């Protein structure tokens, strides 16, 4: 019906800027990173940590291509499975894009896998990033995504994450909030976790952090 529109299919005017999946992770980490990315003419510096992360991802991809799916506890489940690496994803409907580390496909399901170059348990921001990938994967393969994995590179552990309705809702609300912030060009409050500021490449632009 004209005049009614599902929140899953918002009008095109609300879908700009085109966001990235990494934006959703940063939203849950520190919203100021998004402000500096979209609202300020600041060139993002490349840090040693970022370069090391790229190298670690490449090493894991090389290993994953040769080993079984045992670490994901999928070997014993039925049906042949295939893996694809560095899968570029884009949804015009969502106004969202991303580069997913790995996708595991079978007749029954499609599973997004995100590599993380830190040893701890996945944080909420990583889970929301995975959820954003799940939304993109559903658009591309036209299959529901029930779960995904976050693979911790240093520990070689794969954490299964259930993609819940509340996580989906948070990601969609976050995309609306990011676009509203960009449109208003309003600097958000800094993260309450000051430890996150220590290695931040944008620290020198935050006058109230130190």
Class by helix and strand content?
alpha/beta
Cα(first) to Cα(last) distance is 53 Å
* Order of SSEs: EHHHEEEHEEH
**DSSP summary, beta strand count:** 6
Structural account:
With 210 residues, the chain is of the alpha/beta class. It has one domain (14-205): Lambda Exonuclease, Chain A (Alpha-Beta Complex), CATH 3.90.320.10. Helices cover 34% and strands 20% of the residues. Strands 1, 2, 3, 4, 5 and 6 form a six-stranded mixed beta sheet that branches. Helix 1 packs across helix 2 (31-38), helix 1 packs antiparallel against helix 4 (124-141) and helix 4 (124-141) packs across helix 5 (165-184). The chain is globular.
List the helices and strands and how they pair.
Layout: E1 19-20, H1 21-29, H2 31-38, H3 48-64, E2 82-91, E3 96-105, E4 110-116, H4 124-141, E5 147-152, E6 157-162, H5 165-184
Helix pairs in contact: 1-2, 1-4, 4-5
Can you give keywords for this protein?
Lambda Exonuclease, Chain A; alpha/beta; 210 residues
Concise structural overview:
This protein has 210 residues and is of the alpha/beta class.
């Amino acid at each position: 019906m004209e005049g009614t529109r599902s929140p899953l299919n918002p009008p095109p005017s609300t879908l700009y800027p085109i966001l990235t999946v990494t934006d959703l992770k940063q939203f849950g980490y520190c919203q100021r990173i998004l402000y500096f990315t979209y609202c300020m003419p600041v060139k993002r510096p490349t840090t040693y940590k970022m370069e090391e992360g790229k190298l670690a991802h490449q090493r894991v991809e090389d290993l994953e291509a040769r080993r079984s799916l045992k670490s994901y506890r999928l070997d014993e489940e039925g049906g042949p499975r295939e893996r694809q690496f560095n899968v570029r994803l884009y949804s015009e409907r969502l106004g969202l894009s991303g580069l997913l580390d790995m996708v595991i496909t079978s007749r029954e399901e499609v599973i997004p896998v995100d590599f993380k170059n830190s040893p701890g348990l996945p944080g909420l921001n990583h889970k929301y990033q995975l959820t954003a990938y799940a939304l993109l994967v559903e658009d591309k393969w036209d299959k529901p995504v029930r779960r995904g994995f976050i693979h911790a590179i240093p520990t070689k552990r794969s954490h299964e994450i259930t993609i819940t309705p509340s996580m989906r809702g948070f990601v969609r609300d976050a995309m609306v909030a990011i676009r509203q912030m960009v449109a208003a060009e309003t600097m958000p409050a800094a993260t309450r976790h000051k430890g996150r500021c220590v290695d931040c490449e944008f620290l020198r632009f935050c006058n109230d952090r130190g």
